Amino acid sequence: MSLSRRALLLQLGAATVLATAGTARAAGPVTPRLPAPTGPWPVGTVDLHLVDRTRRDPLVPSRPFRELMAGVWYPAEAGGAYPIAPWLSPAAAADWDQHSAPALGVPAGTVDWCGIRTHARTGAPVARSAGRLPVVLFSSGDGGTRALGTTLVEELASRGYVVVALDSTYEADQVEFPGGRVERAVPLPDVLTPEVIAALLARHHRARLADARFVLRQLDRLARGHHPDAEGRPLPTGLAAALDPSRTGAFGQSLGGSVAARLAHDDPRVRAAADLDGEFVGTVAHSGVGKPFLLMASGAKTLDTEASWASFWAASTGWKRALRLRKAAHGSYTDLQVLLPQLTGRPPVPAADELIGTIAARRSLAAQRTALTAFFDLHLKLRPTAFFENPGGRYPELEVLR
Q1: Taking residues 222-247, what's their average pLDDT?
Q2: Is the pLDDT of residue 350 over 90?
Q3: For the residues 174-191, what does the mean pLDDT come to?
Q4: Is the Cβ–Cβ distance between 72 and 163 less than 8 Å?
Q5: What's the maximum distance between 2 C-alpha atoms anywhere in the chain?
Q6: Cβ(1)–Cβ(186) below 8 Å
Q7: In 290-305, which positions are buried (b, 16+ CB within 10 angstroms) versus exposed (e)?
Q8: For position 384, what pLDDT does the model report?
Q9: Cα-Cα-Cα-Cα dihedral sign, residues 96, 102, 104, 109
Q10: Which of 153, 241, 296, 318 could, after both became Cys, cross-link 291 (CB 3.0–4.6 A)?
Q11: Are 274 and 296 in contact (CB under 8 A)?
């Protein structure tokens, strides 16, 4: 099993997810659907192949340079004959079916992962009337594909943001590059002690930080008219003019949330950051941040039960809110919360409780979308909001931790 999948399972605390997946197999592969975004804008997307020739790959040092895939999501013009983007690209979907899904308890062939569609049109022009747009970086949990954040990424794009979702090559289970080449995760060590796991997470954290800083530089260049894609493939009309890198935010799930916090601490362009149920790794756990920060928790976690949260919160001096979704689990902050219950027709799937909790997926996603949009609207667009005064009034599933 790959490094990324085993690491993801360790992070999520997942075992067997679907005890009844065989019932779906008998009727043929299931094609789950993603909930549509709710903002006023149609959504467009484009993939970028980015190559950083200034450093060796931090996870495979034999590689003389670091290469990444990023998905860019944005408000788009309506109409036009642009194809709907898949949730996973074809070769990545095939690899997910053979390696990632079985590790989650979903037998290969049970789900048509390649058939899952987003709500974004590939290459569609950027909406001209949207003006210059804030930029938000997204980073998934350790070992996770960037696709696992699609429901949140699409929502922000539909509400007037350019969202850049990053894959971590050789950490994510699979990353598909142009031409169908798939790079899989580096295998885990045979012995996984707490010390080994901590060292792996620290290594991945450092690699992701360097990746994110490189991507921020590429976005600056793109906004000035340079073309960052390694193959020079066409960019959506209006993308460069729409970017406003001076208003940048970051958010992530699990390890990605810690990366977002460190970016906010280190980079003056990153004005606000959000962490979806991730422990803090490295020095940011003790330094905190002086910028707006949103923490969303799951299960029975509090700022007192999680050591890195307690120290981070005490040191942070900016605007800050900590919310918790009742009956949620770590994987509730991924697309798995809406995909897995569709595999048996009996949501929520009882065997998935440890992974995605027992909270209704529709309510969980709506609360997350509302909280993230309100947060970035407040701090990147400077739009006042009353949401954080009483989030439980709109979503009783949300409680304020502090």
Answers
A1: 96
A2: no
A3: 95
A4: yes
A5: 55
A6: no
A7: ebbbbbbbbbebebee
A8: 97
A9: positive
A10: 318
A11: yes
Cis peptide before 391 (omega within 30 of 0): no
- Scanning 108-193, the segments in alpha helix (DSSP H) are 150-158
Tell me the residue type at 158. Answer: S
3-class DSSP state of 187 = strand
- Number of neighbouring beta carbons within 10 Å of residue 142: 28
For residue 182, the number of C-alpha atoms closer than 13 Å in the C-beta half-sphere is 16
The sign of the torsion formed by the CA atoms of 167, 168, 169, 171 equals negative
Contacts of 164 (CB under 8 A, 6+ apart): 70, 71, 72, 73, 135, 136, 137, 138, 215, 219
User: Residue 402: pLDDT band by 50, 70, 90 thresholds?
Assistant: confident
**pLDDT for 214:** 98
Find the domain containing 235 and state its range.
3-400
CA distance 400 to 326: 11
pLDDT in tens, 21-47: 444 444 678 999 999 999 999 999 999
Tens of pLDDT, residues 364-386: 999 999 999 999 999 999 999 99
At a CB cut-off of 8 Å and minimum separation 6, what does 385 contact? 374, 377, 378
Please list, in sequence order, all residues whose beta carbon lies within 8 angstroms of the beta carbon of residue 142, skipping any fewer than 6 positions away. Answer: 4, 7, 8, 11, 171, 201, 204, 254, 255
What distance lies between CA 345 and its chain's CA centroid? 26
Tokens 């950051």, residue located: 273
Which regions of 185-241 does DSSP assign to beta strands (E)? none
How many structural domains is the chain composed of?
A: 1
pLDDT at 325 over 60: yes
Q: Classify residue 203 as exposed, middle or buried by CB count within 10 Å of its CB (0-12, 13-18, 19+).
A: middle
Q: Which residue has the tokens 């048996």?
A: 344
CATH number of the domain encompassing residue 226: 3.40.50.1820
pTM of the model: 0.93
| Terminal C-alpha separation, the chain | 39
Which amino acid belongs to residue 122? T
